[in-house]
Design a protein that fits this description.
By secondary structure, the chain is an alpha+beta fold. It has 4 domains: 79 residues, no CATH class; 250 residues, Rossmann fold; 87 residues, Alpha-Beta Complex (Aspartate Aminotransferase, domain 1), CATH 3.90.1150; 57 residues, no CATH class. The C terminus is likely disordered.
């Protein structure tokens, strides 16, 4: 008889039954724990299980659930289950979950019938419930949240805290007792406070904070502590991934998806941020399938930092609130380790203060009716409610938001090379009308004469692209006094025309010694666009009696005034 090495059929049947019974045993062991099985809004199966004296929610297909399931068998039989048995058991448990009601899972914040839930993401799976009557920490909240490995626990908030201590760690203060600048700082503080409160509210569009400023202005730290307060994570700030699928995953996994050191946003990234801010879906093919999709809906908080304003498209800029930061002086600098330790120590009190303010804001919200609504209408109303909770008027918030919107308009045009070149080209011209081809030739020539690169990606290479860019800029150009009319056809030859009307006001300098210095700087920069800050210092000292310290103070003052007075329209410091 020839030995084949194959086991007799009876032995194979016995082993097969053993493997099958191991899967059955895993299922029975799991059901003994009385878990809650369910599917979420994306058809992902979950289980709510008891682990480490806490009730946790885990996906059935996750490594964490597989380890938990295997541990049940090991504790009962001191045997390790086979991989195939684990897969078979999980498949059956998925079928069990399919028979139960669906639950919508949220990331970090969730709506409640009478308020808001905030996930503490700690080991006890506690959550904070906030209503118009108060807030409390709940030990066993309902099925609300999904969690990701990068998330860190919130600081345990303290009732009666002081949210204003947050601003001890943000670079928006000013040492000079200039009433105008101090007023601007008060408006900035009000906007930041309203935005942090707004970030704690789910299922509504969220504004996008965008601090910007020169090196050493603590832009990164600004958003880091903002996120650390309400959505702490091991990945403090993010970088843009290579493709849309990676970006959507980041946005769906991070409640506060804050991105650092951005210089330029591709259009597909800008569009994705717009969808995340106001809500939008994304679909991609599920791995190892031919016809199954994974659908993801994102509606969360986005933040950006950069030396310059990284957003250049009007639809994104309408969702952004800009914060121009000043350079930190040597006397104000601290070691980062010390600064972070101070913030961590005060974080419970700061978070408690914001939660107290959120309670007051929710109480004010039903009776808040703003006199006007901006593009981000939900934020306008919630911001007015926050202002009332702070014993300020709705008009104070409207004014602060309106001032920020004006800067958005200026920055949206200045960040576009077409917009900035067009305004300068039309500076001494009241009206222009000709073909898109001739306008592109004229703007390209003017850009070259003023040392603005036409090889950059943002510069249009064809008349049709120029027309599209002008259509994006139309509303903001009109707000600055430049009306652009596209799509006109000349009756004689039926060719397209672009009509531009300049109703902007010229830059006027006061007849004072300070005004004369500003005018000299402006006229110098109109001729030479490649000046550095050091060049300007030299220029001021040569043309005025000021020394280097006085020249530096003046230039820094002009930079601040450009931001708040809208001088960027002609941009006498925007060229530096």
């Amino acid at each position: 008889m020839v030995e084949t090495g194959r086991k007799p059929p009876q032995e194979e049947t016995v082993e097969k039954k053993k493997r099958q019974s191991q899967a059955d045993e895993l299922i029975l062991l799991c059901l003994e724990q009385e878990p809650d099985f369910f599917y979420d809004q994306y058809e992902t199966p979950y289980a709510r299980i008891k682990q480490k004296k806490a009730t946790v929610i885990v996906p059935l297909r996750s490594r964490k659930f597989k380890v938990w399931l295997a541990s049940l068998m090991w504790k009962r039989t001191q045997k390790a289950p086979a991989e195939k048995a684990l897969r078979s058991a999980i498949n059956i448990l998925q079928a069990v979950a399919n028979e139960n009601p669906r639950h919508t899972l949220h990331n970090r914040v969730a709506p409640a019938e009478d308020g808001i839930w905030l996930d503490m993401t700690d080991e006890k799976w506690r959550a904070i419930k906030v209503t118009a009557e108060g807030w409390e920490i709940v030990d066993n909240p309902p099925i609300l949240f999904r969690r990701y490995s990068h998330q860190k626990p919130l600081a345990e908030p303290v009732k009666g805290g002081d949210y204003r201590k947050f601003f001890n760690f943000v670079n928006i203060g000013n040492e000079e007792e200039d009433e105008t600048i101090m007023k601007e700082d008060e408006e900035t503080e009000l906007m930041i406070t309203a935005m942090i409160i707004h970030d704690l509210i789910p299922d509504i569009p969220h504004t996008i904070p965008h601090p910007y400023g020169i090196i050493g202005s603590a832009k990164t730290f600004f958003l880091e502590i903002w996120r650390s307060l309400i959505d702490p994570s091991t990945t403090k700030l993010l970088s843009i991934p290579r493709d849309i699928n990676g970006l959507i995953q980041q946005l769906s996994h991070h409640w506060c998806a804050f991105y650092d050191n951005l210089s330029y946003l591709p259009n597909w990234v800008s569009d994705a941020f717009c969808r995340a801010s106001t809500g939008g879906g994304h679909s991609k093919r599920q791995l190892y399938t031919d016809d199954e999709d994974i659908n993801i809906f994102v509606k969360n908080c986005v933040g950006l930092t950069g030396i310059n304003v990284s957003a250049h498209r009007g639809d994104l800029l309408q969702r952004i609130v800009l914060f121009g930061l000043r350079s930190i002086s040597e006397g104000q600098r601290k070691e980062e380790k010390v600064f972070r330790a101070e913030f961590e120590q005060q974080k419970p009190e700061i978070l408690g203060g914001f939660l107290d303010l959120l309670v007051k804001t929710m109480k004010m919200y039903p009776t808040t009716n703003p006199s006007k609504l901006f593009r981000m209408a939900d934020f306008t109303r919630w911001g007015c409610a926050t202002a009332r909770a702070l014993e300020k008027t709705q008009e104070e918030f409207i004014t602060a938001y309106e001032n920020k919107n004006k800067k958005q308009i200026e920055e949206s045009v200045r960040s576009s090379p077409v917009g900035s070149v067009l305004m300068e080209y039309m500076e001494d011209t009241k009206e222009w009308c000709d073909s898109p081809t001739k306008l592109l030739m004229a703007l390209t020539e003017h850009a070259k004469n003023t040392n603005i690169s036409t090889r950059q990606k943002a510069w249009p290479k064809a008349p049709a692209i120029l027309t599209n860019e002008l259509n994006y800029l139309k509303p903001n150009l009109k707000a600055l006094g430049f009306e652009v009319i596209t799509g006109i056809r000349n009756p004689s030859d039926n060719k397209r025309r672009i009509h531009i009307i300049n109703d902007s006001e010229p830059l006027i300098f006061e007849d004072t010694e300070d005004g004369k210095i500003r005018k000299k700087i402006y006229e110098c920069l109109k001729k030479h666009k490649d000046y550095t800050f050091a060049d300007l210092q030299d220029f001021v000292m040569k043309n005025t009696p000021l020394n280097i310290n006085q020249a530096t103070d003046l230039l820094n003052k002009l930079i601040d005034e450009e931001r708040k007075l809208g001088l960027s329209k002609t941009g006498y410091l925007g060229w530096v």
